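Saturday, quiet lab. Running sequence design on the structure tokens for the scaffold JK sent over.
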């Protein structure tokens, strides 16, 4: 049977980064997926009106109106070769660059399947016009891995076990050289953490990922495991992606039999990975296929910073009977991580909430970890930093150094963040940190900024915010310039975009004159943004426009 290995755990953390990157690529507007735009807060009236408008435009069913309507492109599978810029927080929270790394570059074929497990066609431009493919070949790949992305839902509860919000949940990746299939699940995303926690805990509303997280102590009795009790939030989320996941595994394997299958994930992803492991080892996932090869394949799960998924020791005993022995689940975590429910976390907001919810809902049932728990002693940061992938990586590197008596190089590119201020001074709005020594990172950032926000999407997002200004309670004509697409602000934005297009052409004449005109327009928009800063809806219109212009400015070296 497999044994826990820190080097493998470190490699699985890289797969977790890959899953986070795929999620960000699936966001229609990754630089502002939660409609934060300008300003943050626990409650934001203008933002609420925007969310209601998005639900209306999407035609959302009534039982999912409680969720933040994050727009995902579920008809275009992520591309491992592309990078993306993602903003997961609010206010001054840094932006994240997800750049293609060695794992991404080693994938020679990629595709995606939908919730029902059906192929998602990909339209590409070829020499003879547009072609429709069922997957993308990557001839420049450094390896021969085969990847298939799968979809799932989060946000389901005991009351509404089927009502969730769909997104890209992870990928199945087969390495023919190692004869190994890795199934990785992404972790949760939330925007404003305080608001997400409050809404999810009180009303099971807001961020669907956090609704799943906050339902971790509600029971789901699973019949095929002799009614063992699992976390309702995590099990329902896993069940939602079962069809898609099964199809993705078969696509990745492409008729081959692996020697090893590893399930992995960080945080929420680690919980879902445990559910998938249980379902393969003793349940229904790939039941007919796996039954024929059970004795040939090693199966295990590397759960990183993961919460427990089993409620009660009795349920743990039932599960062990079904999988035929001790679970091959290996938890690597910081001793100070409250999400893992570590005993070293004596006081924190999360532990207080867990205690309160547990005493009210399940006073006699305690969450229980499967398998082996491996605290990373080199992790020293307090929660919530203790939960972050960078801290886990630091702990794993320290463990490897002790086990192998060898050091590992620093990895500043794992989760690189940078400051991005659309209303900042000309040429100084994008500020990578001091660890950005590698020129390759800066080049990736420029490409990712250009592709992460387009003029069209910026215009649509700005219009969403402009649509709610009218109902703000302000004077009727207070923000007339942003009330419709014909307003002065949109005219200025159109002119600025036209200049950006001109400057993107290296053969354009009058470049200095165009640059001066662009600076003038941008400065005028910054003044309008600052003048409207007292009202989040109107200032957000300018923020979205400036965000696109700043990204284009930096990406195209327009300074």
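Result came back. Writing it out in full:
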């Amino acid at each position: 049977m497999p044994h826990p290995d820190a080097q493998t755990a470190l490699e699985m953390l890289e797969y977790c980064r890959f899953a986070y990157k795929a999620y960000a690529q699936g966001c229609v507007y990754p630089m502002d997926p939660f409609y934060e735009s300008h300003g943050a807060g626990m409650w934001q009236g203008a933002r609420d009106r925007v969310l209601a408008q998005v639900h209306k435009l999407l035609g959302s069913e009534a039982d999912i109106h409680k969720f933040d309507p994050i727009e995902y492109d579920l008809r275009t599978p992520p591309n491992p070769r592309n990078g993306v810029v993602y903003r997961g927080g609010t206010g001054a929270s840094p932006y994240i660059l997800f750049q293609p790394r060695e794992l991404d570059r080693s994938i020679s074929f990629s595709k995606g399947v939908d919730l029902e497990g059906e192929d998602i066609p990909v339209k590409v431009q070829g020499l003879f016009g547009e072609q429709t493919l069922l997957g993308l070949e990557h001839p420049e790949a450094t390896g021969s891995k085969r990847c298939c992305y799968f979809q799932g839902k989060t946000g389901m509860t005991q009351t509404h076990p089927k009502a969730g919000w769909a997104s890209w949940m992870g990928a199945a990746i087969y390495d023919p050289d190692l004869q190994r299939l890795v199934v990785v699940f992404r972790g949760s995303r939330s925007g404003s953490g305080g608001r997400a926690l409050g809404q999810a805990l009180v009303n099971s509303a807001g961020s669907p990922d956090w609704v799943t997280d906050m339902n971790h102590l509600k029971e789901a009795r699973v019949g095929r495991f002799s009614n063992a009790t699992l976390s309702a939030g995590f099990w329902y989320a896993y069940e939602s992606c079962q069809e898609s996941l099964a199809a993705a595994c078969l696509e990745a394997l492409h008729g081959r039999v692996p020697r090893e299958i590893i399930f992995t994930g960080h945080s929420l992803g680690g919980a879902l990975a445990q559910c998938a492991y249980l379902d393969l080892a003793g349940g229904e996932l790939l039941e007919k296929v796996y039954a024929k090869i059970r004795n040939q394949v090693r199966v295990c799960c590397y759960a990183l910073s993961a919460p427990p998924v089993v409620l009660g020791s009795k349920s743990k005993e039932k599960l062990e009977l079904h999988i035929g022995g001790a679970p091959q689940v290996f938890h690597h975590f910081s001793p100070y991580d409250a999400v893992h429910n570590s005993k070293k976390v004596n006081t924190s907001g999360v532990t207080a909430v867990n205690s309160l919810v547990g005493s009210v809902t399940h006073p006699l049932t305690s969450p229980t970890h499967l398998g082996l728990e491996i605290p990373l002693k080199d992790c020293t940061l307090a929660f919530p930093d203790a939960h972050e992938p960078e801290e886990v990586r630091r702990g794993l590197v320290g463990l490897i150094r002790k086990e192998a008596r060898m050091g590992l190089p620093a990895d500043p590119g794992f989760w690189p963040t940078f400051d991005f201020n659309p209303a900042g001074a000309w040429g100084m709005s994008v500020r990578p940190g001091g660890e950005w020594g590698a020129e390759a990172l800066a080049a990736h950032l420029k490409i990712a900024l250009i592709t992460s926000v387009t003029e069209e999407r910026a215009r649509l997002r700005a219009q969403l915010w402009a649509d709610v200004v009218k109902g703000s309670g302000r004077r009727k004509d207070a923000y007339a310039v942003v009330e419709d697409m014909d307003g002065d602000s949109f005219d200025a934005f159109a002119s600025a975009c036209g200049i950006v297009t001109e400057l993107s052409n290296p053969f354009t004449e009058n470049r200095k004159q165009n640059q001066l005109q662009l600076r003038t327009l941008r400065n005028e928009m910054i003044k309008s943004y600052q003048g409207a800063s007292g009202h989040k809806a109107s200032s957000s219109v300018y923020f979205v426009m400036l965000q696109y212009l700043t990204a284009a400015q930096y990406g195209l070296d327009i300074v």
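Notes for JK: Confidence is low (pLDDT under 50) at residues 356-364, 472-480. The chain is about 40% helix and 15% strand. Ask whether to fix the surface positions before the next round.
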